[in-house]
Amino acid sequence: MLIVILPLPTTFLRSMDTDSLIKRILKSVFFKQAENKAGRYAGNASKLYKLVSDVAGKLKTAGLKGNLAGVQQNVLLLIRMVKAYASGEYRGVQWKSMLSIVAVLIYFVSPIDLIPDFLPIIGISDDVALIVWLIKNLGEEIQKFSVWEKSEKTINIG
Fold first, then answer.
1. Nearest residue to 109 via CA among 125, 131, 127
2. pLDDT digit string, tens, across residues 67-81
3. pTM of structure
């Protein structure tokens, strides 16, 4: 059975120019800081475990339900991917891709970013847009992990 990456909430982001928002995020000092930290995190299993714990904590408080449930499922998939990478179980991802995933997750957990998280409703929009962008750009590698993950969890009894 193949795990399919869940659809992302285009209706949520329809009202904003997402390309413009993504460009602003990627050029922001906040994302540049996340990118700078990503290399140190990706090479350190304990930092990766702490990061995924922080991401899971934010998911609980962010309220990604309804139209954003697909985003939450994709973030959970990214968490599992980073944990498998940190443990050494999965190394089928390019280093550059892992750095991108880690940078996006660092940005995701940061309360102060392009649109600060304390702003009701809109505060999470830049985080969601960045997750959507990441899934779109690394979809093939993420799908490859999903297939690997499913095969690892399958018990062959015949």
1. 127
2. 777 888 999 999 999
3. 0.84
